[in-house]
Write a structure and sequence with these properties.
The protein is an alpha/beta fold and 366 residues long. It contains 9 helices and 18 strands. The protein folds into 2 domains: 235 residues, Alpha-Beta Barrel (TIM Barrel), CATH 3.20.20; 115 residues, Lyase, Ornithine Decarboxylase, Chain A, domain 1 (Beta Barrel), CATH 2.40.37.10. 28% of the residues lie in helices and 22% in strands. Helix 1 runs parallel beside helix 2, helix 1 runs parallel beside helix 8 and helix 6 packs across helix 7. The radius of gyration is 22 Å and the shape is elongated. The two termini are 25 Å apart. The relative contact order is 0.16. The model has no long low-confidence stretch (mean pLDDT 96). One of its GO terms (molecular function) is ornithine decarboxylase activity.
Amino acid sequence: MPESPCLVIDLQRVRDNYRALRSALPTARIRFAVKASPVPEIIRLLADEGAEFDVASIGEIEQCLSLGVDPAVMCYGNPIKKATQIATAHTAGVRRYAFDTEDDLERIAIHAPGAEVECRFLASAPQSQTPFGTKFGCAPGEAVRLMVRARDLGLRVVGPYFHVGSQQLDPAAWRIGIEQAGAIAEALAVKDIPVSSVNIGGGLPISYADPAPELAELGAVIAAAAARHLPEHADLVVEPGRALVGSAGVIHAEVVNVRMAPDGRRWVYLDVGRYNGMAETENEYIAYRIETLRDGDTRDEAVIAGPTCDGDDVLYQRTRVLLPTTLRAGDPVRILDTGAYTASYSSVSFNGFPPLTVHVIGAERE
């Protein structure tokens, strides 16, 4: 095994996850959220499988282009972008953009004339495990007004877009969002603007320490809601990240130290922490499963911390984590289901620790 810590990605698991989602939502267009795991081998594999790509920056666009991805299957899905970035994307051949403000819409009209646009609205969905809050999305009524404005600016309106929040555990979230998107589509039809696609975003969950709904269950809820509320001719677009790559990754790490604090709590320090891969432990939203070679020994509660000098570099101190009482410095640990939002969240060199190294296993092409 390469030097610890590192992330190991199983490409076959990525392929299996993609095909499972295709089976759960057979008529949907699957658009991979590159931000979840911008690993070249993953991008090439999903391109071969027929995926589209949600890109959040010029860097992601350039990476996809360098790997042979057709810009026609990319959507610049970040509503926060500069005029120069829109112009660069348009020059590169990207023809679909998301927006949620009039200012961004006008920048798109000027720098990507004639482009397709999706308006992101804030759905009334229940809170997810890692919520966006109100950072993105306009009110549904505002979305109608903005898409009328988009048409008047010479852009091609394709339809509404919502996101139920990352790691969404309540299937009803998509039913609520799709019902609201359907109402927007009806209002647009009155304005002679046909909706050709509805983007239901990502948020599809995976099981960590706690179980998540199965894709088949989510697919059934989504399909039923779409059949009831959306125009018959409208494509369904889904933008998974975690659901495709999360279960395909394992972080291989090592115990650096074990300490009994003055309050009597046992602290286990790992060589991976919040700043080199474990950012999603912020607020302890995501509870990863941890395996060791001593799992047959007696276990007890432990606080889990990273290696830096930052006091916030603590992974779990409220979540009840049981680890073997025999753990010692130098013991290897495996952190499961860490294929999403780990390497892509690593800092460049906080406290001098390098970003998480990624190793890929499995055949890229069948």
